[in-house]
Amino acid sequence: MNNSDTFGTGEKMLEQILDFVEATDGLNLAKSELSDYVIIEQEVDNRQITINKFDVEEVLARVDEDGAEFLQVNFSTGKKILITQRLIGFRPLTMFGLDMEKLPKVVTTPDIMNIFDAIQESLCHEDSSWEELEVLRKVYDSVVCGGESVGFDLAAERELFARIPTQILPTSA
Question: How confident is the model over 31-40, as a mean pLDDT?
Answer without folding.
Answer: 77
